[in-house]
């Protein structure tokens, strides 16, 4: 028995392969916090093995969404210990990291699958408060309602706490946008990068120094409409859904 029912919104959202696009966006948003980035990325293991670190993070989140309670408890216990060692176990830092996950998931799901309605958004945030508890946050540390969640994100983007550091502008961009792939894969990577950049909030996009590209937004949105209206409805579930959701 897991923390989330098979028909929960969090499982439905993260069961879609297309929603994996939320990961790079969330990571760039997390790295835009000048304090959180020092613990999340700017220590030796993340620098030396960034892609292994990202792979482990993906496994952790998949376990939380789809695994048993015992499995989720075990992986998050290890993550909390890592956060303590890195000095990023402060509730304000953990809250920003948590915020980026459902925010990014909703942005991607809306764009590539279908727009979530109000009740689904509220349910998804309730599910993510469970995730927050697993990572060490108290209920009092997290926005109570979905409206509070939205307000928290808006406030963080205007109060000066989110400011892309020189280190993040250089290193986080390299990690997320320049993975070590064969040359023949570079066009696909570049297409994914343009999607990631377009999905970012404008303030964070500017903070990373991503230059405006004429037609990028239009091209990305045209692609997302094709995925949503043509590609996904035609795919069998074994291709559309992640293995854990099948």
Q: Can you walk through the features of this model?
A:
With 246 residues, the protein is mainly α. The protein has one domain. The chain is 68% helix and 0% strand. The protein contains 14 helices and no strands. It has helices at residues 9-14, 22-31, 36-40, 44-48, 50-66, 69-86, 91-112, 118-134, 146-158, 166-177, 186-199, 202-207, 216-234, 237-240. Helix 2 packs antiparallel against helix 7 (91-112) and helix 7 packs antiparallel against helix 8.
**Net shape:** globular
Q: What order do the helices and strands follow?
A: HHHHHHHHHHHHHH
Domains, number:
1
Count of separate DSSP helical elements: 14
Q: Estimate percent helicity.
A: 55-70%
Structural class: mainly alpha
Over all CA atoms, what is the radius of gyration? 17 Å
| Percentage of β-strand residues | under 5%
Number of strands: 0
Enumerate the spans where pLDDT stays under 50 for 5 or more consecutive residues. Answer: none
Between the first and last Cα atoms, what is the distance in angstroms? 16 Å
Q: Which whole number gives the mean pLDDT?
A: 90
Give a short account of the largest sheet. none
